[in-house]
Structure formats: C-alpha cells, structure tokens
User: Which sequence fits this backbone?
C-alpha cells in the first residue's frame, strides 16, 4: 500500500496511461462518473481500432454495429441485438457477448466494451466453462491487439477472473459494504471514504503503481455526456 497516498482534486487523468490491447475494469455506483470515463476511453480507442459496446441499457448515442463489421478498420458502434436473414432477432445478451468476443478475437485489432458485465456472466464456476469465448478473449486477446473494457456498478457480482486479469482497475465511489469488500484486494476502504463526485482511484499493474487518484476534467465530463446522448448544448474539444 502506498502510505503517502493523498486525496486531492487537482490530478488530471491522461488517456495515455492506458494503451491498446490492455484490459480495463471500471466500477462505480450510479451517478459517480463511471460511464463518462468509459465513453472517453472508448472514443479514443475507436480512432485506432474497431470498438463495440455491448449496450444492455441502450444508453449510448452511437450507431448500431453494421453487418460488415468484420471489414471495418476502426469506429465506434454498439450492439443491442442481432438480426438474421431468416427474420429471427437475437437479443439475449449472453449470446451476443459470446458472439462478439468470438468474432472480434478472430478479427483482431478490436476493442469490446462489456457494460454491467456481472449481469450476464456468472460469478461462480470456471470462466472457461461458463463463458468460454469471453475467457479466451480475456486471457489471449492481447496477442491479437484486442482491448477489453468491462464495467460494473456492483463488483461483488463480477467473476474474479475479470478484475484479476485486468491491467487497469479503476474505481469511482461504491456504497455497499459488499462491493467494498470485493475491491479490497485493489483499493483500501479508507481511500473510498474521501472520494467525491467524478473522482476515482486507478491501479495500474503495468507501471506497478498502487493507488493513484484522479478527477475527470470538465472536457472529459462534457464529452461523456455528448456520447451518452445528452450534450446539453455544449461542445468540447478532446485533449490527452
């Protein structure tokens, strides 16, 4: 534990700390700023690789994944259902997740964003048995320059393989004692007590850092709102 760690409100998060082909696990309660940060990260990734959000709540104001997605070099899309030539529509999110991780692993140079991952990946059991394509993408995706972003409001419901294999653990405020317990291997409870709105903790295992505190900048907040379909009439320019 970093005993000199202090909560401040001035540290700016830089997207350059997160690279392509890495795995990012982001947690936070409703209204903490989690979705805004994820929107900011994935929009940056989409400039260099095909980025697809499994958007269970259909909250991102971005295009649906096109049928020719395997040929797309980059771009940002969401997947909410699959329509087949027979007229059948698949909207089971576990099936969509396995389809997406299987196909984009083969394709390579892609980023998958799994929103509220604990709601459709079983917490118990071996991940390779319950969600084989996700497990393969999680453990082997880097070899094909594949990135993965997973999010959750309730980390206690998430299979432990997901945060443990993620190079970046990011946590906004969590309120439940069970969620705090689930994150105790990565962040101290004491530091959670000092987190305010839009502040978060970041554990970067690539750099070997323990806990670092950041706050979303105004431009990052506005961009997140815009991507989530509510720009409030404000325009902003992205900066690293």
Assistant:
């Amino acid at each position: 534990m970093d005993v000199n760690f202090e909560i401040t409100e001035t540290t700016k998060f830089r997207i350059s700390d997160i690279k392509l082909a890495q795995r990012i696990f982001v947690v936070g309660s409703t209204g903490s700023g989690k979705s805004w940060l994820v929107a900011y990260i994935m929009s940056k990734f989409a400039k260099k690789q095909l980025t697809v959000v499994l958007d269970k709540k259909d909250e991102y104001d971005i295009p649906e994944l096109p049928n020719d997605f395997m040929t797309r070099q980059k771009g940002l899309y969401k997947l909410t259902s699959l329509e087949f030539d027979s007229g059948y529509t698949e909207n089971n999110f576990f099936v969509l997740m396995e389809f997406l991780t299987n196909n984009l692993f083969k394709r390579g140079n892609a980023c998958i964003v799994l929103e509220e991952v604990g709601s459709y990946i079983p917490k118990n059991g071996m991940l390779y048995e319950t969600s084989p394509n996700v497990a393969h993408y999680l453990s082997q995706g880097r070899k094909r320059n594949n990135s993965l972003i997973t999010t959750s409001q309730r980390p206690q419901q998430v299979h432990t393989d997901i945060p443990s294999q993620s190079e970046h653990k990011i946590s906004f405020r969590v309120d439940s004692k069970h969620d705090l317990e689930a994150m105790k291997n990565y962040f101290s409870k004491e530091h959670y007590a000092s987190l305010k709105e839009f502040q978060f903790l970041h554990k970067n295992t690539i750099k070997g850092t323990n806990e670092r505190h950041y706050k979303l900048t105004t431009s990052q907040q506005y961009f997140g709102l815009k991507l989530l379909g509510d720009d409030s009439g404000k325009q902003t320019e992205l900066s690293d």
